[in-house]
Amino acid sequence: MMTKKDAAFIKYWEQNRSKEKSLIKQFFPGLPIGLGISTAILLLLNSGWYVRADMVALSESSPVIIFIAIAGIVAFTGFFYKKFRWEMNEQAYKELKIKEKENNTNSEDKKQETN
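Below the sequence we write its predicted structure tokens.
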């Protein structure tokens, strides 16, 4: 039996699945997560909790390399998170469509049996 929530999700996803698949729609909503991870990494680098790691990081890497690495983390995390959410919604949509089809088939069979 389909719930109202399931039916609302199917209707929403049929209307918005192509919009949410676009690259820009997949990239920008995931940016805050990437920025959060990058901020945590920078805070750990600057906190001084592991002195030897700080010495190695400061002596062997340049700020440009760290910036490029942080930008890469932000971009990858931003894109990966939203792509993962899109795939999860697509899977849920397909499962609900199968469930809806089975419910329709079962209700049609019951109608034919009563006639």
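The chain has a mean pLDDT of 83.
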